[in-house]
Amino acid sequence: MRIRGIGGDESSQLAPEEWVNVWQVSDLGLEFYDTCQVKHLGDLTTEDYFLEPVEVEP
Predict the structure, then answer these.
(1) Which of 50, 55, 57 is nearest to 5 (CA)?
(2) Neighbours of 44 (CB within 10 A)
(3) Which residues lie below 8 Å from residue 13, measured CB to CB, with a gap of 6+?
(4) Three-state SS across the chain?
(5) How far apart are the first and last CA of the chain?
(6) CA–CA dist 48, 58 (Å, integer)
(7) Residues β-bridged to residue 37
(8) The predicted structure's pLDDT at residue 55
(9) What span, in angstroms and rounded, lies between the C-alpha atoms of 41 and 17?
(10) How far apart are CA 51 and CA 58, in angstroms?
(11) How many angstroms separate the CA atoms of 22 and 36, rounded?
């Protein structure tokens, strides 16, 4: 599986209203964590997480 996105520590490159899939980086690779808006990431803005922007339909 190939995922396009950025590290959580680079979240400032994204708009606060943008939605992202959050993947946790582990020894096994990437594990899905949650889907949320950038402004609600909180403690997930570290290199231990990977952010994949997603399209959300209204």
Answers:
(1) 50
(2) 20
(3) 6
(4) CCCCCEEHHHHHHCCCCCEEEEEEEECCEEEEEEEEEHHHCHHHCCCCEEEEECCCCC
(5) 27
(6) 30
(7) 19
(8) 85
(9) 11
(10) 21
(11) 8
Q: State phi, psi for 7 to the nearest 5 degrees.
A: -70, 150
Distances 40 to 2, 11, 27, 29 between C-alpha atoms, Å: 25, 11, 26, 24
What is d(CA 18, CA 2) in angstroms, rounded to the nearest whole number? 21
Over the stretch 1-56, which tens digit does the pLDDT of each residue have?
A: 566 899 999 999 999 999 999 999 999 889 999 999 999 999 999 999 999 999 87
In the numeric block, which tokens belong to residue 52? 């994949």
